[in-house]
Design brief:
The chain is of the alpha+beta class and 65 residues long. The chain has one domain (2-63): Alpha-Beta Plaits (2-Layer Sandwich), CATH 3.30.70. It has 2 helices and 4 strands; from the N terminus they run E-H-E-E-H-E. The chain has helices at 12-23, 49-58, and strands spanning 2-7, 28-34, 39-44, 62-63. Strands 2-3-1-4 form a 4-stranded antiparallel sheet. Strand 2 (28-34) and strand 3 form a beta hairpin. It starts with a strand and ends with a strand. Bound molecules: copper (II) ion (CU). Residues 10-11, 13-14 line the site of copper (II) ion.
């Protein structure tokens, strides 16, 4: 599993939006977003980190490195 910090989430709607955005990436599966930890974890089969970061920022949240 891979993890990434996600800043700016405030409620379960944000969690759902981030989950959906990541699941839409081909190669990313089993997405779990932890609101309290401000972190998403997922199985990644080859998706570039930059693509993952951009999927998060495109919906208005701030991805970590
Ligand atoms: Cu929210």
């Amino acid at each position: 599993m891979e993890t990434i910090k996600v800043s700016g989430m405030s409620c379960q709607h944000c969690v759902a939006a981030v989950t959906k955005a990541l699941e839409e990436l081909h190669g990313v599966d089993e997405v779990t977003v932890d609101l309290a930890a401000a972190e998403a974890s997922f199985a990644n089969s080859g998706v570039a980190r930059e693509k993952i970061r951009s999927a998060i920022s495109q919906i208005g949240f701030d991805p970590g490195d």
